[in-house]
């Protein structure tokens, strides 16, 4: 089945970023992907995303539901036909939406697990917590807006961080069929703001078997609000030696 382009509004997106030892990140990646290294660190994180008005591009906005979603991500690069390409590898996607869980991997790329979300938002603070239905993952993040990006060892300022994440608009997720499904974010209204992390816990990044002590450190958070965006399916990517984009 041909997967449609989707329109949406990114009502709220928290990019909670960790700096990670490149060898620890590399162990989590299938070929042909490798960690994208910034100032000696791999870049990984959690995207906590509330999408609204999600619908095929031809459908009116009235038919678009809202949903809470989460994606654990690792910034990656690979060798394409015209040189090195960049994007993110998403080992896990989770959603509060039964519709998204059913449609992921069918109607649009990326299989989704189910999760229960707890969200509290005020103008001065946002807290997003989730627990997956399979019991494998818990996340609890509280952030506040900030005037500028402070304390990051990955990025010198907000503008550099914004450029980095805008360039990584292509995301690839594993499937049970042994290949990667891809989707690309398109927007003419890209805008992120700096945030400050007040508390953050993730059983994914806090797992010492996945990330030995000291190999994954919270770095910074970016905030995106009320940005119209399209999501476009990409050709699949084969994994393993000699992997390439599939037609």
Topology at a glance:
Elements: E1 6-20, H1 22-26, E2 34-35, E3 37-38, E4 41-56, E5 67-80, E6 83-95, H2 98-103, E7 113-122, E8 125-132, E9 138-145, H3 158-167, E10 170-174, E11 179-186, E12 193-202, E13 216-224, E14 227-238
Parallel strand pairs: 6-7, 6-10
Antiparallel strand pairs: 1-4, 1-13, 1-14, 2-5, 3-4, 4-5, 5-6, 7-8, 8-9, 9-12, 10-11, 11-14, 12-13
Which labels suit this protein?
247 residues; mainly beta
**Average predicted confidence as pLDDT:** 89
Query: How helical, in percent, are the residues?
Result: under 10%
Order of helices and strands: EHEEEEEHEEEHEEEEE
What is the SS-derived class?
Answer: mainly beta
Main sheet attributes: strand count, strand direction, barrel closure: 14 strands, mixed
Q: How would you summarize this macromolecular structure in one to three sentences?
A:
The protein has about 250 residues and is mostly beta strands. The protein has helices at about 20-25, 100-105, 160-165, and strands spanning about 5-20, 35, 35-40, 40-55, 65-80, 85-95, 115-120, 125-130, 140-145, 170-175, 180-185, 195-200, 215-225, 225-240. It has three helices and 14 strands.
